[in-house]
Structures are given as C-alpha cells and as structure tokens.
Amino acid sequence: MAAEQRSVIVTGSSRGIGRAVAKRLAADGFAVTVNYAGNQKSADEAVAAIVGAGGRAVAVQADVAQAGDVARLFDETETAFGRVDALVNNAGVMSMTPIAETDDATFDRMFATNVRGTFLTLRAAAKRLRDGGRIVNFSTSATHLQLPGYATYCATKAAVEVYTAILAKELRGRSITVNAVAPGPVATELFFEGKSEEHVARLANLNPFGRLGEPEDIARVVSFLLSADAGWVNGQVIRANGGMV
Ligand SMILES: NC(=O)c1ccc[n+]([C@@H]2O[C@H](COP(=O)([O-])OP(=O)(O)OC[C@H]3O[C@@H](n4cnc5c(N)ncnc54)[C@H](OP(=O)(O)O)[C@@H]3O)[C@@H](O)[C@H]2O)c1
User: Fold this and answer.
1) 94 occurs within a structural domain
2) CA 167/CA 235 separation, integer angstroms
C-alpha cells in the first residue's frame, strides 16, 4: 500500500549533496520530495533518476526562507505520499569573505537560507512529522576549522547546531531523532565557487585520504541517521570529513 511507504522531504535536492541524499533515500525505500529553489530542470532530472531506478519522487519548488513556501512543501508532500516521516534540511548557501568585506546583503542571504530556512522547516516538522520520524540538519566541519573568510557562513551553521540539540529535547515523547551532519569539503558547485585550483587542492589535502568528499560519502551518513539502527543517536552533530578535524 502506497501510504505505508515512509516519505522524506529533502530540501535543496535538485543538485549537489541533496540530490545524492534524495537518490540514496529513495533506494532505501523512502518516497522522496525533491525540493529546490529555482532550478526546476535539475530537480526534474533528480526526480527522473529516482523514478528510473524504480523509486517514487516528486519535485516541489519552495524557498525554505519563506513560511508560506514551507507550508506548501509539507502540504504537497502529504498530498503526494499521504504522510511525512522525515526531513533532511540540506538547502544551504555559502559566500566566503572576511568579516571586514562582508556586505549586509551577503550576511542576510546566508542567514535567510541557512538559519531562517532551518528554523521554518524545523517548526513545520515539529508540528507535522509522524511520531518515530527523523530529522537531519546540515552544518559544516568548517565550524571547527575556523579558517579566515568563513565567519558568517560558520555563524549560520553554529545556529543550525543549536537548533539540532534543542529540538531533539523539545520532541520528548515523540520518538523523533534530530541530528546534524557536518561535512568537510565536498565536490559540489557550492564548494568550487570562487576557489582557485590551488585552493581546492589545499583543502582536499587537509584530510588523511587527500581527496575531496563526494556527495555519496555524505548521503551514506544521512541514510544511516534515517535508519532504524540509528534510533539511539539523537541531538548529535556527526562530522563526515575523512578525518580533517
Ligand atoms: N559542499 C561542501 O563542501 C559542503 C561542506 C559542508 C557543508 N555543506 C552544506 O551541505 C549543504 C548542501 O550543499 P551543496 O554543496 O550540495 O550545495 P549546492 O550544490 O550549491 O546545492 C544547493 C541546493 O540548495 C538549494 N537551495 C539553495 N537555496 C535554497 C532555498 N532558499 N530554498 C530551497 N532550496 C535552496 C539549491 O536549489 P536550486 O538548484 O534550485 O538552486 C540546491 O538544490 C548545504 O547546507 C551546505 O552548507 C556543504
């Protein structure tokens, strides 16, 4: 029966890590809502890849920083799949500038998507996820590296980590786990933007494997956190970076 299949919303899953997460969770047996901000073609490709592999998925445009969009994201998932069991809060943006050169618009853009977006989706999930569900937020290992240029981005992710720990406690009695994944550098558009080859090579070498993470490296961790085996992991931030920090 279709309504017996668990469903998951993966924010920002048209591209990058989110797309790999959506594909992996579909292979794990979830019906998947592929959320995107503006890139419908990529979202449709992600859905086609899932359906082509025998899974179930729908694409839903929604800006996670807009409360009305977030409500519609949950509504359309319920309409498509009859239930919402899990939320993967992957949508995020990054700009790298020293504090002295960070303009107001850059600050606002990162806080809107990364913090307000996380808050709005968590608020909806706290009300609408089925008991026994799962939430995975996205932080970054950069919060521990603390390299120059990353301050505002890391500040947004520090907020995400606090939301993770506190929501895990607020959902007492619901058997819902709330965790965060904190990747190191992963080969996606977000990571490569504005970096020279030399800069990329330096960051790839910070872990003992001497390579960048691949989106699938992170998707495997999310898959575990959504599995029954991870039921006792709650309120944690799991760093997935090959041993960088
Ligand atoms: N890549 C890394 O090295 C790295 C390291 C640590 C943490 N992370 C975190 O991992 C997550 C995914 O990063 P990524 O590298 O995969 O990024 P990406 O390749 O740039 O993809 C970003 C995704 O987020 C969506 N998105 C952006 N703003 C949105 C909004 N306001 N509402 C809904 N969706 C939105 C984009 O949709 P459209 O396609 O429609 O634009 C896209 O699907 C982020 O939270 C990032 O901070 C990444």
Assistant:
1) yes
2) 8
Whether residue 185 is predicted with pLDDT greater than 90 in this model: the reply is yes
> What value does the mean pLDDT of the chain take?
97
Q: Is 96 in the pocket of ligand 1 (CB under 6 A)?
A: no
Domain count, the chain: 1
pLDDT band at 3 (very low <50, low <70, confident <90, very high): low
Q: Which of 36, 70, 190 to mutate to test the pocket of ligand 1 (most atoms within 8 A of CB)?
A: 190
∠ CA 4-29-42, nearest 5°, is 115
- Which range of residues forms the domain containing residue 163? 2-240
Q: What is the pTM of this model?
A: 0.98
Tens digits of residue pLDDT in 162-175: 999 999 999 999 99
Radius of gyration for the alpha carbons in the chain, expressed in angstroms and rounded: 17
Between the CA of 188 and the centroid of ligand 1 the distance, in Å, is: 9
